[in-house]
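in:
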């Protein structure tokens, strides 16, 4: 699946998530890691903040790829 993609976005919450990423994904050169904190069990306001972080990443990606 990674081989057929131009880019793969992986959203992770911490260093533990990075360790769980398979080596073939880490070494592919196509994987972009977005570190986004987990909003689970957080306040609604915090969840909205994390949504805005994701939105910023997506907007940057759209600008980059056109």
């Amino acid at each position: 699946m990674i081989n057929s993609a131009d880019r793969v976005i992986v959203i992770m919450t911490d260093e533990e998530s990075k360790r769980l990423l398979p080596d073939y994904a880490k070494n592919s050169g196509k994987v972009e890691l977005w570190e986004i904190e987990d909003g689970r069990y957080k306040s609604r306001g915090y969840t909205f903040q994390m949504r805005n972080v994701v939105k910023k990443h997506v907007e940057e990606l759209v600008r980059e790829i056109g």
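note: Residues 8-65 form one domain.
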